[in-house]
Structure formats: structure tokens, C-alpha cells
Design goal:
Layout (H helix, E strand, L loop, with lengths): L3 E6 L4 E6 L4 E5 H6 L4 H12 L14 E7 L3 E6 L6 E4 H10 L4 H13 L2
Antiparallel strand pairs: 1-2, 2-3, 4-5, 5-6
The structure holds zinc ion.
The site of zinc ion has 7 residues, from helix 2.
Length: about 120
């Protein structure tokens, strides 16, 4: 099974990972949060799209990671700064997020630039 060798925050918005097969990929933390597999989020996403589009982005700290904790041999538990910590991402799931949401170097540079110009 493919597994992440490292998971590191690049900055406030981006998480980067290196995998056992050599893949290096960076994604937005908000994409990771959007993919939260817990029952609560999967249900809420459906409702949010119908009833309150955009509501998901309003909780403070929601897309900011507090901790990533290994779970057994198969996954990672994400704790978010809004207190949400019930999402456990299997390595398979993480891998598919890091493949499908992978940021281009250009986008990474743009994000770096935006963040540095705001501080
Ligand atoms: Zn969740």
C-alpha cells in the first residue's frame, strides 16, 4: 500500500506530502477539509450545497489544521482549528486527494506571493 512518508504544511493554506513511491504533491488545506470523510461532514456537504451555499467556508479556523495524527497503520486523523477532529483519512483516500487536487508549481508560487504580500 502506498503511504505518505511526510506531511508538512508549506504555509497557512497548503499541505505538502511525499509518498513511498516518490510522488510529491501539495494541496490546499481547504480541499482536504472539503473531503473530510466523517459522517457529519458528508451529510453537511449535501445539505450545505442545497440550502446554504458558501456556509462551509465561514467557520473560523475551519480550513486551518491543528494536528495530523497517525491512526494505526492505515490512515491519518485530522484535527482542525474549529475543533473538528472526527475525520479519519485512510492512506488510499489521502492519496487520491493528493493526486486529484495537486497544485501546480505556478499556483504554489502565486499562493506564496499572496500570503507574503498580506503580512
Ligand atoms: Zn468531518
Amino acid at each position: 500500500m502506498l503511504r505518505p512518508l511526510s506531511l508538512k504544511r508549506r504555509n497557512a493554506a497548503v499541505l505538502c506530502s511525499t509518498w513511498s513511491d516518490g510522488l510529491e504533491s501539495c494541496i490546499l488545506l481547504s480541499d482536504l477539509r472539503d473531503a473530510c470523510p466523517c459522517a457529519h461532514c458528508s451529510g453537511e456537504q449535501i445539505m450545505g450545497q442545497i440550502v446554504f451555499p458558501g456556509m462551509k467556508t465561514l467557520a473560523p479556523g475551519m480550513n486551518d489544521i491543528a494536528a495530523l495524527t497517525p491512526v494505526g497503520n492505515y490512515g491519518i486523523q485530522a484535527s482542525w482549528k474549529d475543533g473538528h477532529d472526527t475525520g479519519i483519512y485512510s492512506f488510499d483516500m489521502l492519496r487520491s486527494i493528493f493526486e486529484s487536487k495537486r497544485l501546480s508549481q505556478q499556483t504554489l508560487d502565486d499562493i506564496d506571493h499572496q500570503l507574503s504580500s498580506h503580512t
